[in-house]
Amino acid sequence: MNTFRQASRSTALHAARTARQEAQDRTRVHIQLRGLPRSALPSDIRRTVIREKLTAVTDIVLDYHRFNPTGRAYLTVSHPDFMKTNLHALENATVGGIPFESYSAPPPASGPPERTRGPKGRAEAADRGLITGNGPRGG
User: Fold this and answer.
1) 90 has pLDDT over 90
2) Please, which residues have CB within 8 angstroms of residue 108's CB and are 6 or more apart in sequence?
3) Residue 19 pLDDT
4) What is residue 57's three-state secondary structure?
5) Under a CB-based contact definition with an 8 Å cutoff, are residues 71 and 83 in contact?
6) What is the number of alpha carbons within 13 Å of residue 90 lying toward its C-beta?
7) How high is the pLDDT of residue 120?
């Protein structure tokens, strides 16, 4: 009897989580790709986007940690209506023959640096610790 209750509770939690995820998917415009080869370039991901016939992809961003690729990338879609079809198209996609996972995601966390132009700006950014190589496009 307890296993039946646990199974029904698990099913109810899964249904609630799925409904919550679908509600978030209706407003999100970013797809996170995980498990990419660390040698993957934005052009490799662009090639996969074209091969899988994804629609309305406007930007591709690799994620870095200390200037080294993390194996994650973000695709930006122009409108949330394209999210479901693009996620479905990416289910069996590969980059360099290696399969990866794709998820609807919030935007990658990175703010524009205040001042990084010119020698003085770069020196100020280095003093503030802005040039660390972390985040989308390596900061």
Assistant:
1) yes
2) 30, 61, 63, 74, 135, 136
3) 67
4) strand
5) no
6) 28
7) 78
The CA-CA-CA angle for residues 106, 112, 114, to 5°, reads 150
User: Which 3-state string (H, E, C) describes 66-97?
Assistant: CCEEEEEEEEEECCHHHHHHHHHHCCCCEECC
- With the C-alpha atoms ordered 84, 30, 97, 71, is the resulting torsion angle positive or negative? negative
Q: Record the tokens describing residue 82, joined without a space.
A: 């394209």
pLDDT of residue 3: 56
SS3 content of the chain, % helix, strand, coil (to 5): 40, 25, 35
User: Over pLDDT 70: what percentage of the chain?
Assistant: 70
Q: For the chain, list the domains and their CATH numbers.
A: 15-138 (3.30.70.330)
Classify residue 117 by its DSSP letter.
Answer: S
Q: Give pTM, 2 decimals.
A: 0.70
Partnered with residue 119 across adjacent β-strands are none
How large is the average pLDDT for residues 122-138?
A: 71
H/E run at residue 45: helix 42-51
Q: What is the DSSP letter of 113?
A: -
Q: What is the pLDDT of residue 28?
A: 87
What DSSP character marks residue 138? Answer: T
